[in-house]
Amino acid sequence: xxxxxxxxxxxxxxxxxxxxxxxxxxxxxxxxxxxxxxxxxxxxxxxxxxxxxxxxxxxxxxxxxxxxxxxxxxxxxxxxxxxxxxxxxxxxxxxxxxxxxxxxxxxxxxxxxxxxxxxxxxxxxxxxxxxxxxxxxxxxxxxxxxxxxxxxxxxxxxxxxxxxxxxxxxxxxxxxxxxxxxxxxxxxxxxxxxxxxxxxxxxxxxxxxxxxxxxxxxxxxxxxxxxxxxxxxxxxxxxxxxxxxxxxxxxxxxxxxxxxxxxxxxxxxxxxxx
Length: 274
Fold this sequence. Notes:
Keywords: ANK repeat, Repeat. The chain is mainly alpha-helical. It has helices at 3-10, 14-23, 39-46, 49-58, 72-79, 82-91, 106-112, 116-123, 137-146, 150-159, 174-178, 184-193, 208-214, 218-227, 242-253, 269-273. It is elongated, with a radius of gyration of 24 Å.
């Protein structure tokens, strides 16, 4: 890409951009060397809405892919540019179903980064309910849950409530992922849909509560006690209980200070077991 063109886009110099295009309309086809980004990719990334509008008017290449197979919609969703996403969707809504080289959609990117307004905008698209490929929407719910994006999780559950039962490649449901974190409000939302979610096994034979016990997430126990008390009576597929896992740790580390090392919240395994 001509350095003058890149500088005009990065600096939001609309007049400079127009002058360059009038000088040579092939500038609209230029791409960066390393990432193969188009002018629309760059304008969407930098959040320059007037430049995006001008580019869409001259050369609406919304579905163009860079070296990672990402479209300008991926860029807008990564950076959280809601108004630019609206313009791109108005021009070509079907570009939003494209997946990048990692099989991630623009919708996944928005969920991953917790951009609630963008998730809400995309969740209202007519094509979303049909996208039930496990590489796509279910993974969005998994990642939003594990990262604690409460608003995004709530929106996904409103639009696609049955996706709480989807599992990833490890057999983990969104509740399994949550039990590796400390976002209690998300636990309430998931268990409120169905207490039976607490009884799902992962591929390794663990229920969500087993993961919570293994990770020392004691605050989660109160939520399970109130909303899914039966889960405390279930074994892993290997026949272990939460108590059994703790006793194994006792036997393995009884000669060390392992049980008295505080976590970031000041809790120790010894205090959590009392």
